[in-house]
Structure to design on (317 residues):
């Protein structure tokens, strides 16, 4: 009886040993496959979808180039990705971005594809929003525009602004063509004339900022000159006959002109019409034969100026 039991134990041990040692390589392969299958099933159960913002890193044309992008680029695009929670967390925390090369200044359409999106292994791109962008470009041009000056305040009593000028008269505006072409002038800060009396005054004043996305070249200020004089009034003397000096009996066409005299009130208001004499000087004209010529009409006045209409007449002799 004892020998039979020992034989059964030996047989059982041989079977167990064979089960553990025979085809050991195949058993190892099956074990690894089982582990991988279990890991895959667990990862599938852990997969999620998430929308992550990818910043747009745009390489624009260099400063001083001849093209400018007019379309505002969004700071980022929204990319919906699928993967494990851990992989998605790592992707979101890595400040993901997408590079866009616009350095040539001629790309008018951008299409975003999954191949452009860099994601970790095991993460898939499901959707991109927006999927594309349309771009508008403009040429950069330079154009001369006039500088406009102005005054603010009030001069001393009995005075007025006689002349307002600015140097330089023009400035170069540089920027996108659509903005430069519609800009008509550059303004300089107003000249404060409060309390000023007779004289000439100069000040260096800053230009107002150039329109958005444009710039003034080499000029940021201008010299404004203001001339102040005593206040003047004007009196009209219509249909005054023209006196021809140097040719007796000569006639003019037209025979009469209108004269407007300007000056300070104390001078102009007391001016008599007999003192306002329109004249043409024909003393140097060849009078050896009959003829005609066109001469400029003038009026000699002290402390006043005269505007004559018409300024010239035809003299015949």
């Amino acid at each position: 009886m004892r020998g039979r039991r020992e034989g059964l134990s030996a047989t059982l041990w041989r079977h167990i040993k064979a089960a553990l040692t025979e085809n050991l390589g195949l058993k190892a392969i099956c074990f690894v496959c089982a582990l991988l299958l279990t890991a895959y099933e667990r990862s599938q159960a852990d997969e999620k979808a998430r929308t992550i913002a990818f910043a747009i890193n745009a390489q624009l044309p260099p400063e001083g180039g001849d093209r400018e992008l007019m379309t505002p680029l969004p700071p980022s695009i929204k990319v919906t990705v699928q993967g494990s929670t851990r992989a998605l967390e790592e992707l979101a925390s890595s400040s993901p971005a997408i590079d866009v090369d616009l350095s040539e200044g001629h790309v008018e359409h951008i299409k975003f594809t999954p191949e452009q999106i860099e994601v970790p292994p095991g993460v898939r791109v499901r959707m991109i929003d927006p999927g594309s962008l349309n771009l508008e470009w403009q040429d950069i041009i330079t154009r001369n525009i006039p500088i406009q000056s102005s005054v603010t305040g009030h001069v001393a009593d009995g005075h007025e602004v006689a002349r307002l000028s600015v140097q330089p008269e023009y400035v170069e505006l540089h920027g996108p063509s659509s903005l430069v072409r519609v800009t008509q002038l550059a303004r300089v800060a107003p000249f404060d004339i409060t309390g000023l009396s007779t004289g000439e005054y100069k000040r260096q004043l800053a230009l107002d900022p150039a329109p958005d996305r444009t710039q003034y070249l080499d000029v940021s200020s201008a010299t404004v000159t203001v001339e102040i004089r005593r206040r003047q009034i004007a009196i009209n003397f219509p249909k005054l006959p023209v006196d021809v000096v140097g040719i007796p009996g000569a006639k003019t066409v037209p025979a009469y002109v209108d004269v407007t005299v300007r000056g300070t009130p104390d001078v102009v208001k007391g001016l008599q019409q007999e003192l306002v004499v329109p004249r043409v000087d024909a003393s140097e004209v060849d009078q050896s034969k009959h003829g005609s010529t066109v001469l400029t009409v003038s009026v000699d006045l002290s402390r006043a100026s005269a505007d004559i209409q018409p300024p010239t007449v035809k003299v015949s002799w």
About this structure: Residues 91 and 119 are 7 Å apart (CA to CA). The longest helix spans residues 24-46.
